[in-house]
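Morning, I've got a small favour to ask if you have a moment. Here's the protein in full, and shout if anything looks odd to you:
***
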Amino acid sequence: MYQFIEQTVDRYMTRQVKTVSCDVTMQELNDLFASDDFNAYPVVDDQGDAVGLVTKFDFLKCFALTLSSMVPRYDELMKRTVSDTMVHEFIYVSATTKLVRVLQLMVEHRLRSVPVMDTEQHLVGIISREDVMRALRDCTRGEQRAV
């Protein structure tokens, strides 16, 4: 476990991040979720800067019935865009963040993935639960045999 405590995001993050733009429709987003099996996409503007995050949960919120709102027809909802549903303020980390901190954030906020940003707030990667689990396996392999 001591080895895991010293690990940072940059060793385990995915550097080639698949993103979406604000004008992607819910139908296109639905298709992306189905084909990629990702839980979230960073949303980028025309300059490539991250301006939000859209998750499967955000997608599903569009279809939730509440007493205060009547749900439009399915076809109308699927024409809405990512900018209508994305989260503008989101948790992110830097490449030098310790994985124990990422794990803490994931557990506290029930996150499946966390964008990785540089000092100028540019997207440089993403770290997922699977990445953290791989790091835990890598760092504890010797400890498992010693028990």
Remarks:
- The chain has a mean pLDDT of 89.
- Residues 129-146 form the longest helix (18 residues).
